[in-house]
Request: fold
Amino acid sequence: MIKQKEYAKRRSQLMDIAGSGSVIIVRAAAEKIRNRDAAYPYRQDSDFLYLSGFSEPEAMMVLLPQDKGGEVIMFCRERDALREMWDGPRAGTEGAVAQYGFDEAFPISEAAQRLPDLLHDRERIYHDLGKDPEFDQNLIGWLSEFKAKTRKKFLAPDEIVALDHSLHEMRLFKSRTEITAMRKSARVAEAAHRRAMQVCRPGMNEAEIHAELLHTFTSNQCEASYVPIVGGGANACVLHYISNRDTLNDGDLLLIDAGAEYDGYASDITRTFPINGKFSGPQKDLYEVVLAAQLKAIDEVREGNPWDQVHETAVRVATEGMIDLGIMTGSLEEALEEEHFKDYYVHNTGHWLGLDVHDVGEYEVDGHSRVLEPGMVLTVEPGIYIPETAMAVNEIWRGMGIRIEDNVAVTRDEADVITSGICKSIDDIEALMAS
Ligand code: GLY
Ligand code: MN
Ligand code: MN
Reply:
């Protein structure tokens, strides 16, 4: 568990960055209705969670930086015996102060009345516009009222600064406790993939494998960090395939992309394996190409290397492999130069990982690919997908989709593969499936 002290440290770090003339407003995610009065399971906004650890809806944090440190005010739901009987316990304003360490807390119903006072002697507001247009409208309304009244008698904010740049820079670099949470999330996802490989048999339905993944997540008190992709045969070529309702056929591969969420932190693992437990010749050949691309790319995950070097390395190895297998023709340099590989290697090789699966943080700085630094965590996930309609390719390859995805932390030394607990070599997969 991330401790109250770490959340407090994050808040003071953000207040130091914003400076004493600022006020920072961060709002909880809204509850989302699925249909009529049934809600989707609630998931807190990641920025709000990162700064508070507070997972209730209808809440707002106001950070008031001072020369040194600052004050944090939480607006949240009040205790309510009847509502708590329906929906479960609430921290209430007292609990927010006692359990979460905010300096003061007020009922969220008083936010509109109290907020203008908190803003009026500040020069700028850090806030992410766009998440809640109604609130943004109010905020802009208060600012214009201030402007009309000010006449230099008191200072009023005249600037709304996007919060995401500074906050997301902080989130990009994971602390030791965050990496520990991510390792736990990885352990659970590895167990889910292992179970899927062990139970998989021809004739089963993708839905049954989906259920096995959820069984592991739920029994470990985790959520799925995104809807799992369970794609048998050519379904693996649909990148966001989530219907997971087809029969798993003997002789096909199965691609599973599934991760757990532990304490808010995501893992994101993909494995591809033969439904009957034995890779065919062509499946082996293409799998070895993707695996070689992934291993070479992981080697590039080291301090000081630009982020896009990971992608470029994976693409080079994958393209070379596809040419060797006759899937692509022409020279390697031409295929890279003209980007012919994009017919079958369609997505990037990875993304930042953290509280969000596609986590926050810039990929470019001053027009250049970002240089990797210790504390960053990313996925490395090359994939080759040969659509069934790819008539230019020999039919033995058509309908084959292979991706291998691991989660990798940048360290001072070599890459730390935090999802190394689930096998990916052909021999290891076949041995596990036979066990
Ligand atoms: N599971 C989403 C991704 O691999 O990026
Ligand atoms: Mn994935
Ligand atoms: Mn991914």
Notes: The pocket of manganese (II) ion (ligand 2) is lined by residues 257, 268, 270, 405 (CB under 6 Å). The domain at 4-170 is CATH 3.40.350.10 (Creatine Amidinohydrolase; Chain A, domain 1).
